[in-house]
TrEMBL record:
This is CAP domain-containing protein. It holds the Pfam family CAP. The lineage of its organism: Bacteria, Pseudomonadati, Bacteroidota, Chitinophagia, Chitinophagales. Gene3D superfamilies: CAP. It comes from Chitinophaga caseinilytica. Keywords: Signal. Residues 1-24 form the signal peptide. Residues 53-165 form the SCP domain. The keyword Transmembrane does not apply.
Length: 175
């Protein structure tokens, strides 16, 4: 049996779809995780590695891959930095503001969701933790076409992870 208190610390998911919001929690994941199929080369490659594992999971379910978007990644990175520095608590504080900022840059979005996590985790391990959590899994399998990924190290080299998912009409998605 796992401790619900730790669940709230390690993994949180939020979704805003046409005005509604949901939150979910998963069992904590610890350790570095296996990176047998793709190893994390260095910290700057963490975002690309997370994208690789998310899209591998989506493909296994017959879904199109998500496209990494710079605007979304900037917002995700900023949120991870804020959590890592303690400026923001771990969670989804400011999620609606991040989505508003994204909309100002790329236009109105149909739907958006966010996953966060922290720990001493590889890209594969954090994605595996999200896959095992119903709320995170729902976000990763959602009707989205863009993703932003951002990581930041906090005290003790603990990595904070943020994923932002957006459904944007294809004609406008590349802005």
């Amino acid at each position: 049996m796992f401790n619900q208190r730790y669940c709230k610390i390690l993994f949180l998911a939020a979704a805003v779809i046409t005005g509604s919001s949901t939150m979910a929690c998963s069992k904590p994941v610890t350790g570095s995780g296996s990176t047998s199929e793709r190893s994390v080369r260095n910290e700057s490659d963490m975002d690309e590695d997370i994208l690789f594992f998310v899209n591998k999971f989506r493909r296994s379910k017959g879904l199109k891959p998500l496209e990494l978007n710079g605007v979304l990644s900037k917002e995700a990175r900023g949120h991870s930095k804020d959590m890592a520095s303690g400026r923001t608590g771990f969670g989804h504080e400011g999620f609606e503001s991040r989505i508003d900022d994204i909309s100002k840059s790329i236009g109105t979005v149909r739907a958006a969701a966010e996953n966060v996590a922290y720990g001493n985790l590889s890209a594969e391990a954090v994605v595996d933790g999200w896959i095992k959590s119903p709320g995170h899994r729902k976000n990763m399998l959602g009707d989205f076409n863009l993703i932003g990924i951002g990581t930041a190290k906090g005290k003790g080299n603990i990595v904070f992870f943020t994923q932002i998912f957006v459904n944007k009409p294809a004609a406008q998605a590349k802005k």
